[in-house]
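Supplementary Note 2. Why include the ligand at all?

Several targets in our set were suspected to adopt different conformations when bound, so apo predictions alone were not considered sufficient. For every target with a known small-molecule partner we therefore ran a joint prediction. The input for beta-D-glucopyranose is given below.
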Amino acid sequence: MTTPNTKADPNVTEFDATAPDVMALMGAMSLGDKIGQMSLAQPGEGHPVEALGDLVRTGKIGAIINVVDPVAVAELQRIALEESPYGIPLLVGRDVIHGFKTIMPIPLGQAASWNPELVRMASTSAAAEASLTGVNWTYAPMMDISRDPRWGRIAESFGEDVFLTCQMSKAMVEGFQWEGLSAPASVAACAKHFVGYGAAESGRDYATTNISEHELHNVYLPPFKAAVDSGVASVMTSFSDLDGIPATAHRPLLTDLLRDQWGFGGIVVSDWNSIPELTTHGLTADDQGAAIAAAHAGVDLEMASDTYLSHLASAVEDGKVPMEVIDHAVARLLKLKVEMGLFSAPCPNIEAEPSNIKKRALEHAYQSALESMVLLKNEHHTLPLKKEQIKKVAVIGPLADGAYEQLGTWIFDGDPDISISAWAGLQNKVGGDLELVFEPALETSRSRDMTGIQRAVEVASQADVVLLFLGEEAILSGEAHSRADIDLPGAQVDLVKSLHAVGKPVVGVIMAGRPLTLSNVMDQLDALVYAWHPGTMGGAAIADLLFGDAVPSGKLPVTFPRVVGQIPLYYNAKNTGKPPTPELVTYIDDIPVRAPQTSLGMSAFHLDVAHTPLFCFGYGLSYTQFSYSNLRLSRPKIQAGEHVDVHVDLTNTGDRSGTEVVQLYVRDPVASITRPVRELKGFQRITLAAGETRQVSFTLHTDALKFYCSGRGWILEPGLFEVWVGGDSNATLHATFDLGDE
Ligand code: BGC
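The joint prediction is reproduced in token form.
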């Protein structure tokens, strides 16, 4: 019998009161029992109890995934407690990514709210709904920085920015684990995918990544550090490789950094099948080699595959895996189960009255949908629509009545029957006052059959205004659903053109799992609302927004490129030695024949598209307008460990109240390594009445100015810093301060 080496693993000493129990349990368990705790299985197609009951009973598994029948979960937990060798309860995992039965907007949409508190609240609802079934562990939040809209999983991300992703990740972890891990309506969270998965080459899911050490530390790792600091219970490894080592076998990441440097005391779980895939990657020769590599790297729990069950015991007996590796993993797993209160209350509370939970979830889904929507264009104040000025509304498009499609990716348990489509939302809201006519025009977002377009034109020509619901079906984003062409799919561009030609005001509403390239339709839309995949309450929120009972406040959490060839395009890029000037415009068609080699200028741009995005990070309009003035700093010079206060006056210059997301950006223009042209360092949602002015203040501490530099770690360098405050990443109000070196 080997007990955990508490000296070697500082996390084991954190057991406090529960330590003796875990230690005693560990002392009694055989090697096989311990490896069982390190294994997680799924029921497949079979009945959960039939498929998994014996594995639980014989101690072959310590965790299950994808069992959501509360009766089956309860029975499996009963077997675990009463019939398995040591009575150890199960972790019950499920992908609760953006809601459970009630679906919130996709995480990318939630990020567009720039409202971490709302994200936190929505996650408490998702956790509560999931826990009713006995699920006690979710595989969320996904905090992979995503700079490539081709990547299908950008939908699950919080976008391209480090600071925003840190805030949202923290909020979601706190929401899932609200009131503590042992609270009946909370679930353990999982920070995924550690790390760099979002950098998949060309946005092809699972593709390799090329991330420099600086980018890794300055861009990809901070959200995970924020999640660890927020007490996240688990971390999932990435499918991808990093500098030649697949993350699932990356000991420097999983053990040296995550555990030893960051002090993470929770569990590390592999992604689905990612241990045997070490062999597919070409790192190991077979399943045994893969099991050894993953265990040695620090993977505590194997998801879905069974290389640990089949090979770890012999690897330990042959001296290929030290026993203490197993002991540390099992100690962490048992510690988590103790912290989750599973030994005393492992079963779903199926007697619970779920009506309050459902009511709260619907409220959170509505508010999240509302705040996630970004108004991208509003010519001639087309929006909000004024009921008294119109009689007949044409409701057109393949996403107009998409109660299911608007839920987006990862909705295993989502209930499409309670989802309110835009068509339903509009009928509920104005169906009694206005004549609404519905014509989908295209059967799905991918349809190329043009016959419906003519019908849509006829409907539009009879109406006062056209509401055009475009986008992507749910299946076009998410895991393994990347796209190389991110224009509106099918014949939707033709549909927009045909409706524009009718001459009535056309309001576009796009529901999609990613930023789409919209240059080819922008001129033909009078107004455009980007609704992402807005979830269960999407239609109700859209109707309220379009008719002015709510005012848009969302801002883009990700840059919208003009064309796919600009990707990757993100605001916090490097300046380069040859940045294009803002006014640089080059069109390939205008280049004179035999133009001299250098006559077009020598800077970082494409010949055939503007060097700017279609919409920049942080962009979003309101029905009112805001102006910024009087940017001032509390002092011109600070020292390390101090802070500077940044103040700005924000005025609502329009004629109705509204909410603005005030954004603070910083640049370190001279540093030991080149630094981004701007970095978001703060934001606040401020609601002002028409005509109101308010001072908005940020505290900028020197900790926020640190960056990672190879060979030196996180450093703070003295010198000048630039500051901008405004309503998007192109903010122009500017100030500077000095960081002294005394
Ligand atoms: C995904 C994970 C997910 C897991 C379990 C994998 O394919 O990459 O994000 O949590 O499946 O469903």
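Confidence is low (pLDDT under 50) at residues 1-20. Residues 355-372 form the longest helix (18 residues). Comparable summaries for the other entries are listed in the accompanying table.
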